Amino acid sequence: MLAVCGALTAGEFTPLTLPALTEDIRNWSDGAAYNPLYPSSSQIFAGVPFEFQSDASGNTVFYGGTLGNPVDATLVIPVGLYGVTTAYTLINTAYGLPGSIVGSVTFNGSGGVSYTVDLVEGANVRDHYYGGYVNTTTDPSTTEAVFGDASPGNAHFDMQTFTLPSTFQTATLEDIIFFSEGIGNPNGKTFIAGATVVSAAGVPEGGSTLALLGLGLGLLATVRRLQTC
To answer: Between the CA atoms of 107, 108, 111 and 113, what dihedral angle is there, to the nearest 10 degrees?
Structure first.
């Protein structure tokens, strides 16, 4: 590795805006625990920044239907960033029985690149409230209770870490599709409260020609800086 003046940034975080919100989680079990996040705020959980928002109706998360009348729901989250390596989400459920597939997250990139992960109760998602449903996860890519209280009788948000396949490093991540199955009580139903992606720093969106041009110019600039440090 070349020694250069100053530090190189390995990647940069981009908190995403959820284009639709359907429920106010502050009205759910122990919902008052979420009050510090809304109506809007920027927060950092486990080193990852997230943006929280609410709409004109006071909704704060995307769920699909209402708590008592859930429906299948799909949220397309625009991204448009080149070279995304990792995505982070804040996804939990209402209710939940172990092993139930309650949704999925799909990452779509340019050139037909795609990657889908199922959301499974007790594996990578669990109830947002520590009560009578699924209260644990087994997937090491899920970090429990990055916000809130993990003890019984309290609410929380968990964070999922998705490491994208290497094919995304030379593609533009066009969107993230969050799907929540309308199962509801007791199997469980997912909601999403936030999403953030990490992309390679300084790589322009576009084809490989632009990426190679940028790399060449960056190396030339590095050599010039080395000569003057």
So the answer is: 30
Q: What is the pTM of this model?
A: 0.84
Q: What is the number of domains present in the chain?
A: 1
Cis peptide before 39 (omega within 30 of 0): yes
In a domain, 25, yes or no: yes
What CATH code is carried by the domain that includes residue 124?
A: 2.60.120
Assess if residue 57 is contained within a domain. Answer: yes
Which of the four pLDDT bands, split at 50, 70 and 90, describes residue 5? very low
| Residue 228: inside a domain | no
Distance between CA atoms of 79 and 62, rounded to whole angstroms? Answer: 17
Quick: pLDDT tens for 20-68. Answer: 999 999 999 999 999 999 999 999 999 999 999 999 999 999 999 999 9
Task: Judge contact between 41 and 47, C-beta under 8 A.
Answer: no
